[in-house]
Design brief:
GO terms for molecular function: ATP binding; carbamoyl-phosphate synthase (glutamine-hydrolyzing) activity. Belongs to the CarA family. Keywords: Amino-acid biosynthesis, Arginine biosynthesis, ATP-binding, Glutamine amidotransferase, Ligase, Nucleotide-binding, Pyrimidine biosynthesis. It is an enzyme of class 6 (ligase). The protein is globular and about 70 Å long. The protein is 25% helix and 31% strand. The chain has a 10-stranded mixed sheet with strand order 10-12-11-13-14-19-18-17-15-16, with helices on both faces. A 7-stranded mixed barrel has the order 1-2-8-6-4-3-9. It has 10 helices and 19 strands. The protein folds into 2 domains: 7-155, Carbamoyl-phosphate synthase small subunit, N-terminal domain (Glucose Oxidase, domain 1, 3-Layer(bba) Sandwich), CATH 3.50.30.20; 160-369, Class I glutamine amidotransferase (GATase) domain (Rossmann fold). Helix 8 (238-250) packs across helix 9 (259-267).
Length: 370
């Protein structure tokens, strides 16, 4: 790692100050300070829209050892408000490597901080919960006034901010006669993998901007709808919730993922609550209540469906978090819908959760056959 004299600081909302060194972009940014336990996949996290408005701390002590490349982007740009690591690697080694993480962060305008005790920071966030913070390369002159600014920060208009450049209607695949189904994706901040999962199942996809009304979505003759993952408070986007409610009334099959899971629950008169520090990382254990099997899943969320508000006449809790027993997935009874808090992924192992896409496609086919 290159030794640099550029200093950088993190000031937490509770007044705790960390002094370290700067990499990536320079300047100042306020955001929600969170931590992720993932040991790899840092570039995917940096470009994941669900991290909008957040300052991400990596608990793994060395980041950047395999560099960055154009193929591992979750989206076309970064959405983080800051990035914190114990140490970054300036000599990455990998046959796919196209550059180092320092240059990547500078190009993306993301402020980086390294050389602090990330274990200490993580313990603070675990004990006190997610809190706001300022990451800066500029000396803090007025701490009291700065703390007031930090305390006032909230993540606002998150979905609109990460989808503002998305066309109102984007037909992303053209399988033609080979396509078995036409699936709409309501883009709340999704990554590119969703359309690939549908293509693998011979489904054409149409991506809709969250500003699209339900009538426009239904006019495009889609057989089913995926409510994608995304950032922010699920209760904030009233217009999107209205759209989902109208889609429910139409009876079209739906699958919710992440934020989509939460908003589908809200549209069915359930409630969501904010978590102490959320579930973030690639090692979140989830139990299937039907089979008793535990899956290791990838998650990033600070809100969860309040299990006490799940009406058994409306839906069953299909998945629970193995640690805190919170709701991780629902199957609905009177509407053709299922939803999960985690990101279904296929890796060919016994931890593969991509079968959920198969369940959704089969649901759509049954509904289409009626």
């Amino acid at each position: 790692m290159i030794t640099t004299e550029r200093k950088a600081w993190l000031l937490l909302q509770d007044g705790t100050l960390f002094e370290g060194k700067s990499f990536g972009a320079t300047g100042s940014s306020i955001g929600e300070v969170i931590f992720s336990t993932s040991m790899a996949g840092y570039q995917e996290a940096l470009s994941d829209p669900t991290y909008y408005g957040q300052i991400l701390t990596q608990t793994f002590p060395l980041i950047g050892n395999y560099g960055v490349n154009s193929e591992d982007m979750s989206a076309d740009r970064c959405f983080l408000h800051g990035y914190i690591v114990r140490e970054w690697c300036d000599t990455p080694s990998n046959f796919r490597c196209e550059g180092d993480i320092d240059k990547f962060l500078r190009e993306q305008g993301v402020i980086g901080l390294y050389g602090i005790d990330t274990r200490h920071l993580t313990k603070i966030l675990r004990e006190k919960g997610t809190m706001n913070g300022l990451i800066t390369t500029e000396a803090i002159r007025d701490k009291a006034n700065t703390l007031k600014k930090i305390a006032k920060y909230t993540v606002k208009n998150a979905v609109q901010s990460v989808t503002e450049e998305t066309p109102l209607l984007n037909e992303t695949s053209q399988l033609g006669p080979k396509a078995e189904l036409r699936i709409g994706i309501l883009n709340l901040g999704c990554c590119d993998y969703l359309k690939e999962e549908m293509l693998d199942r011979e489904c054409d996809t149409v991506i809709f901007n969250p500003n699209q009304p339900a009538s426009t979505i239904l006019e495009n003759k889609v057989d089913g709808i995926i409510l994608s993952e995304g950032p922010g408070d699920p209760a904030e986007d009233k217009d999107v919730l209205k759209t989902i409610e109208e889609l429910i009334d139409d009876g079209i099959p739906m699958m919710g993922i992440g934020l989509g899971h939460q908003m589908l629950a809200l549209a069915n008169d359930m409630k969501c609550r904010r978590m102490l520090h959320g579930h973030r990382g690639a090692s979140q254990p989830v139990i299937d209540t039907l089979t008793g099997k535990t899956y290791i899943t990838s998650q990033n969320h600070g809100y969860v469906v309040n299990e006490e508000t799940v009406d058994e006449d409306v839906a069953n809790i299909r998945y629970k978090n193995a640690n805190d027993k919170s709701c991780e997935g629902l199957t609905y009874k009177d509407i053709p819908a299922l939803s999960v808090q985690f990101r279904p992924q296929g890796d060919g192992s016994d931890q593969d959760t991509a079968f959920l896409y198969d369940e959704f496609v089969e649901m759509v086919k049954r509904q289409a056959a009626r």
